[in-house]
Specification:
It is a single chain. By secondary structure, the protein is an alpha/beta fold. It has a domain of 177 residues: Rossmann fold. It is 38% helix and 26% strand. Helix 2 packs antiparallel against helix 9 and helix 3 runs parallel beside helix 4. The longest helix has 17 residues. The relative contact order is 0.17. It binds S-adenosylmethionine. S-adenosylmethionine binds next to strand 3 and helix 6.
């Protein structure tokens, strides 16, 4: 099933103009491992800033949660290291919680569960593997008040109106008083942003090229990854970072039984990462139909964890 959808999406992307590959497919086992390396990179300031906010401001965030019990639902949960800081603060505030991590990568959900069970042996963890667009409805029958976490600047992967549509999609599964907690990267000096997506060690390049290895393995592809470069750009006017693979030569590749032609220097769009001002986040909240917003930032004001109430 998964393989059919993967094949459909990859072929659709490679047959479109310009060519594109969806960033949600970066995270196979190897991709999740490389992403953990990215999180350790000095130039990739995002997790450090978000960790600072969760360390310093979780209590302040929790003071805005009126109920004694919550289902903590996390979309694109990843390895759970940052989430642990928030869960710890919730437990210390004597909230009763269930934790429901949703991720497309079953491997990272295993890592997440092992890590959190060791830290919080009594925590009720209910992992849900799959694309959150398909799996979020599994939370619908649950009656506890909810706080939905969407951390790690994941919102940045949705361009323009798609971010509003995503929040509206999540809102369908909430009731009045439920909360949405959003980690968003803020606009800052363009060089600081660009360096985060274009490290000299080439880890980000490896992360992007890994998707070609995955296609080779799962869709009988014959990409030669060395024939592609990684290129990243940031536009300070729109606040959008984009990353591409660039075909270094004219070449023909087989994927899932189809032949795909690449021109020399042809780009393949891989990922966008949108940056926000607080005013952009307020606009996003209003457009998506949430009632209130509060914003918690790190000391450099590089990153915001924003709490929206439905
Ligand atoms: C950038 S990582 C962030 C992980 C974590 N939230 C953090 O802040 O460290 C994105 C995570 O979202 C997951 N993901 C991406 N697209 C997804 C989708 N459509 N459905 C479910 N999970 C998805 C990936 O597997 C990955 O673990």
């Amino acid at each position: 099933m998964m393989n059919t959808i993967f094949k459909r999406d990859i072929l659709e992307g490679l047959n479109s103009a310009p060519k594109q590959l969806s960033s949600k497919y970066f995270y196979d086992e190897k991709g999740s491992e490389i992403f953990q390396e990215i999180m350790q990179m000095k130039s990739y300031y995002l997790p450090g800033c978000e960790t600072e906010i969760l360390t310093e401001k979780s209590q302040e965030i929790i003071s805005r949660l009126p109920n004694p019990t919550y289902d903590v639902v996390e979309l694109g949960a990843g390895d759970g290291t940052k989430t642990a800081l928030f869960l710890d603060a919730l437990l210390k505030s004597e909230k009763t919680i269930n934790y429901l991590p949703l991720d497309i990568s079953p491997e990272i959900l295993e890592v997440n569960k092992d890590f959190l069970i060791e830290k919080f042996p009594d925590l009720n963890i209910l992992p849900i593997a799959g694309d959150y667009f398909e799996t979020l409805e599994k939370i619908k029958p649950r009656k506890n008040p909810k706080i939905v976490l969407f951390l790690g600047s994941n919102i940045g992967n949705f361009e323009g109106e798609k971010a509003v549509a995503f929040l509206k999609f999540v809102r369908q599964y909430l009731v009045k008083g439920d909360l949405f907690m959003l980690g968003a990267d803020l606009k800052k000096h363009p060089q600081t942003i660009l360096k985060a997506y274009d490290d000299p060690e080439g880890i980000t390049k490896r992360f992007n090229l890994n998707l070609l290895h995955r296609i080779n393995r799962e869709l009988e592809g014959n990409f030669i990854p060395e024939n592609y470069d990684h290129y990243a750009s940031y536009d300070p006017l729109s606040g959008t970072t984009k990353s591409f693979l660039i075909s270094k030569i004219k070449q023909n590749v087989q994927v899932g039984g189809q032949a795909i032609d690449f021109e020399k220097n042809e780009p393949v769009h891989m990922e966008i990462s949108q940056k926000y001002n607080i005013s952009d986040l307020i606009q996003l909240r209003e457009n998506a139909g949430f009632k209130t917003d509060h914003h918690f930032t790190d000391s450099q004001k590089y990153f915001s964890i924003s709490l929206f109430e439905y």
